[in-house]
User: Fold this.
Amino acid sequence: MKCTHILPSMLAAVAIATSGSFAQDKSALPVEGMFPSLAGATGWLNSKPLTVEALRGKVVLVDFWTYTCINWQRTQPYVRAWAEKYKEQGLVVIGVHTPEFEFERNVDNILPALKRFRVEYPVAVDSDYGVWKAFRNNYWPAVYIIDAAGSIRFHHFGEGEYERTEAVIQQLLREAGKSGIGNDTVRVDAQGSEVAADWGNLRSPENYLGSERTEGFASPSRASGGKTRSYSAPRMLALNQWALRGEWTVNPGAVVLDKASGAIVYRFHARDLHLVMGPAKRGTSVRFRVLLDGRPPGPAHGVDIDEQGYGTVTEQRLYQLVRQGQPVEARRFEIEFLEPGVAAYAFTFG
Assistant:
């Protein structure tokens, strides 16, 4: 299971694989199974608990997400717009929040994400993967659309195919006897991390920093799991290599800074750079500064830092640190933490 990172060149194959005969005949949506149970949810937000039985007669869009997933964040403007546009015609959108990282199990961490991404529709808290397993799902984001009779008629993994997904919503609402649906599609005004990736300039894949799944680690000293160790960063890094500098503990799922002025260095090629990170101890904060090629980022700064590169880690989430203008080039990214106590989990790009 993973936060999906699907390139445009893969979309045609994915579309055929994930939507059956609809690829050949847009009027013939296959039946892919019955609406699985929602009983595995550990709680509900924005709604009382919903059941499959109570939803019969409605067209239901189930959106699996986890709040740090950049791929989900870029789909959210569309899901949000569909929920608003079609709610009066009988569409029910249900977000299923299934955590990737341990801290995403905490409802107190999920609640700020609802506000940040304007999630106003019902959300099933799926911290024990009960709903995920019932759907046999393996991806974030994943959309399943269920007709009024309770049959799954369409699903899509990852980003893209927005017009096609909306056409399915419209068709199933018509099948349910709704009128005045129309064929027009939503237009969204994505901001910040919700802006679609610059696929043509994306040369850096998602990379985890913990010892279990990381790639491209280039510090001369090997990562020592679970122990504080001093690391240094090479003067030169190849594309998609990264290194630590300073006193760090490398854990299976994250790297944790043990002494002030430690840094993470990464050579990347993408318009956007994001880092999933947070205070190692809840309720604390950690100041940091970002440099690009040794200089303040200026207009290339992301929404979570200023032009001089300064920012503060205050909660466990995805931080947008770089948004390059054109031309997009390979850059040496460095984030120096001015205080200890930060945990860094994964880099994502766009």
